[in-house]
């Protein structure tokens, strides 16, 4: 169950809630289903998303990061995925809630490794939101992305994603269809087909 801890950063809080909802909708037999991340199952995407939230929190606070490599995530979900996710989201939200919004920059675990507070919190949100979409699509849930959420996520994605592509979290960008659809533009920039289905 959610403890409803929020960071105070609207985009991050909405993205955390999207990830929370997507994970809660994974059926018991759905953890090994394929996802839009072609090499990763639902479990691997879930574990990666958890690990990245812990990584952002640890970079901000100096606390413990994930016990595994988020770019080589475990293949089994563990005994209590919901509790594991809630711990990660709470740590990240608390870390961002403590950030000085007037600071020139804060440390982040992704290049360029320092960002403005808004950009850093939105980078953290980007990871949560896009993997919420991956999990939702893999398990037959509605898309958690909205134009209001996709807009700021795309703005930050265009500044940070290219150096991350070789690590496997984001594939090469797909051509945009120029349809002025912010959600589709975000997904295509992140190397995801907005029309992806498990049978595709």
From TrEMBL:
Domain Mycothiol-dependent maleylpyruvate isomerase metal-binding: 12-136
SUPFAM superfamilies referenced in this protein's UniProt entry, alphabetically: DinB/YfiT-like putative metalloenzymes
A Pfam family reported for this protein in Swiss-Prot or TrEMBL: MDMPI_N
InterPro entries per record: CHP03086, DinB/YfiT-like, Maleyloyr_isom, MDMPI_metal-binding
Protein name (Swiss-Prot/TrEMBL): TIGR03086 family metal-binding protein
Biological source species: Nonomuraea spiralis
